[in-house]
Amino acid sequence: MTDNVFLQLKNVGKTYAATSFWQRKVGKQVLSDINLSICSQQSIALVGASGSGKSTLCRLILGLEPVNHGEIYHNGKAFSDFARDDWQAYRRDVQLVFQDSIAAINPRQRIQQVLCEPLHYLRGLSANQCVREAARLLDKVELPASSMEKRAGQLSGGQLQRICIARALAAKPKLIALDESLSGLDVLLQQQIIALLQDIQQQDGTSMLLVTHDLRLVDKFCQQVVVLDDGQLVEQRPAKSSEPWSSKMGRELSEAILPARPPIRKPLEQSYVPETQECEALV
Amino acid sequence: MRLELNNLNVRTHAGEALVKNLSLTIESGSVLALVGASGSGKSLTCSALFDVLPRNLIYSCERTLNGENITGRALRGKHMACIMQNPSSAFNPVQTMAQHCHETLIAVGIKDQAVITQAMLDAGLDDWQTVLALYPFQMSGGMLQRMMLALALMSQAPILIADEPTTDLDLVVQRHILNRLKKVIEKRQLALMIITHDFAVVAQLADRVAIMHRGEIVENTRVTQLFEQPQHPISQQLLTAHLALYAEETHD
Amino acid sequence: MKLTISAYIGLTVFVMLLAVAVLAPWIAPYDPSAINLPNRLAPISIDHWLGTDHLGRDVFSRLVMASTISLGAAFVTLVLMLVIGVGLGGLAGYAGGRTEQVIMRTCDVFMTFPTVVLALFMVAILGTGLTNVIIAIAITHWAWYARITRSLVLSIRHSDYLKAAKLSGVPAWIRFRRHILPSVLVQLLVLASLDIGHVMLHVSGLSFLGLGVQSPTPEWGVMINDARQFIWSSPLLIIWPGLAILLSVLSFNLMGDALRDKLDPNLEHEG
Prior knowledge:
The complex is a heterotrimer of chains A (283), B (252) and C (271). With 283 residues, chain A is an alpha/beta fold.
């Protein structure tokens, strides 16, 4: 698996600095010293609590924000050496499904226009080809072709989530990042979207980068798990391992999972939710 | 303390019924979970309880408190408190937590400042003195949600309604908040109605569960009963999906 | 399209004014500059619908011809303000960093000047005349539009759909034009329609002070100024142009309100 390293992160760090007119002030270090290799055909989960830096790392990988320290390499070439064409090529390889599907679609555009943007700019299709391909994408995410003419306000949250996935698929990427895209969905929708993503993973060989705080989702599609705590990479291990977690964050995340079924005894008689870390300031 | 809500009907001016003939009972010391897919009308029910529905909707219902008919009386403030889904937008960004507390106390007519301290400790904010001086932007989502719980407790309301209180928070914080809620309900013998779409929360926190579908309650039973034998096809569908996704992950 | 009564009134009056301004040369019965001293200060009559002014010129013709200039000047000023304001404000909002700081501080400087003071200054440098008045007003007011545009752009700039467009390979200029500009322009249109009355008052006000349009060119502000000395003997001479300004500004404000009511809450549901 190490011979086709697709993305490599070396000593990656990110600091948010407040800029003023006269000088650059010292800011907050959100990520430090991240070393990670992502191989093609391998799906990875980035887990951590809120504020651990996982979303920031996702944005850095997508190229939405510049890297302050260290470097990210795509097929051996560093981001800082990228020309415009390199970025276009990168966007064809790596795409993102946003968490809030309603905010991720321009409310003024019709769905056809939304899907045609990546088709036109990343794959260079003509207008007619775009329309045909958009129809095929809608079909793949199990939406009716009539959705093409609609606008975001006329579709439900679940439908919009599928359109975001369709848009990510438009460029035929090798890696799709999912930034907490499965959080906050109701259970039926979650089940459907997970099934869809698993299909895509198997049929097209697309790998997934799942950013989440919910460990239960990790082994649905990921082979590796990477744990982030306070901006640092504290643990990396295979997803289906039954070994105990070596990092504190890993343990906290796994203990935070609520059992799926009610306890056997009556709730009021037993304090079944362990309060081990109750007294720690959990902010 | 027993609040009964009977025949809640919410409809638009055009006549479309959004919530149909909904009936619920909330009792002290117990937790009722209201579950449903998006669009089933859960949040509308919550808004109707507090009489804060948008103006383009009409609603009608009968309310009984401890057997006494109180239809038409407003229940907010010292009778019923709410914890909302998005804690960061529930606070006035230019007021400190102390100012929020005082506003709540004035609204319910309580003068005793010790109530603030007790409520904050019960909500899990041990360093309450520091927190009182903070502004909302200085606090994380988990802290804000605990503060919202504290404000609800401060009002001494016997009934607490929580509308998806942990949906936007990560699992670690969620577990702590749910712990706190459970403890507080026991300690103060409050009645809690929690609206959620997560069956794991229902399993661990609630005593009774009502499943909503398209504005109607399709099943209203004890939680253990639901997990053993769901009656309605919708309940079965939701429960099957939940268990298929999460049942193998039990870690206790 | 359901409109309130005030919106209908505003729209009707606006359309009428527009028609008058455009068709002025054909509507005016007399040459507005034709001096006819024997017939000065004549009262309302069949020949002269609104009477004549102190030089015997037909008031109605002057009023009608003035509408072209007053309304025209207001529109031109507005367009100029929008172009400069949106251009600089959009740049500030989109580029951020030092560019934004420089542009915003410049805005601050320009916003400290009261219009009249700056107009006097411009007139002192450039001389009187309508063009200079237009420039003076545009220079004082563009900063307000720049500020508003910047904050509108900022609010959209961090939205997810803009990031999604970037990930879809859409070039920066097209992202601005396709995703940011339409929302910004719609909101600005509402503000501009509410502001046009204000601008008109400035144009007329400055002309009234003698800084803008000069006699004999007919303009409502100038007409008020000319009629000042006759306020007791022929009060109607002041009232007609005043009424014209009042009606115009009122119709713009009513239309602006209607536009805002229609567009603002429905911004997400277009189409």
